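Friendly challenge for the regulars: who can give me the structure tokens for this chain first? No prize, just bragging rights.
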Amino acid sequence: METIGLMSEQPMCQNPLALQQLKRIWRECFEADDGYLDAYFSIGYRPEQTLVFQDDDTILGMLTLLPCQYRGIHQGKVRLYKAAYLFAVGTLPQAQGRQIASKLLGAADDVLKKQGVELALLAPAEPSLYHFYQKRGYESFFTRRELFFEPKGRAEHLDTRTLSLKPVSLSEYYPKHINLIPQESILWDEQTLCFAERESILYGGGLYVLMDGQNELCICNIYRYKEEEVIVKELLLQQGVSEQQAIEALRDLFLQCRVTIRLTGTDKENRVPSGMIRFYGPKEDMPENTQMAYLPFLLD
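First reply, four minutes later:
Bragging rights claimed.
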């Protein structure tokens, strides 16, 4: 018999075999390795935030609901909306074709409405999925820019000795992050941010302040899946610092690496979609869709 519900409400919730079934979905759908699974299930996983699709006692699909807030513009004023981020929507390959993802999305709507959530958001894993989610009530809402650089090979400046990446803890990073993000932005809870920090470290990076001597240029969240590749999932500039200044400094610090840098969508050119929302409230309460909203660095 097919059933859909939160993991916390299932009789099998405390059964270790159920956890193994969830991990199987992560491995087969998202190619998660053991290190990632250990990090997620020790920090990020919560049964009350995990929707599962079961056929008898076998979990065939899952969807995660992460609480957050959206700080948006409504009628010319800043307003906070209770929100949830839909993460890790997955169906086992052998169960494809049974519309399990669509059924999970419908169940997520019901759960979130009962919880008083005003909007759901998600980041499609690939461009082709935007149409899939659009048919289910979502609209493009968040944007970003993404720049790609080949290895520099050598520094263009004669002296880069003053440049450094200063590792910082989440407790040090977070106040800077909140101060520097655009006005229209997602605000994450502590649990999600703790997992994001762990994920960055797991993949060879972490949270940093980019320094030039004693001066802070920016904060950044860096991943290094490969030694020769640097991905800056978040870069937020201190006042008075130009993008070009921060970008060149990072490239000088990673001369032999390909560098990918994600930037906020405040520049109206060269923006690409980075996320969608589904609004549950009255149309007159919906936040303004400026296509400038920022979905911070994590969980894509």
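The longest strand covers residues 58-74. The CA atoms of residues 146 and 200 lie 18 Å apart. Your move, everyone else.
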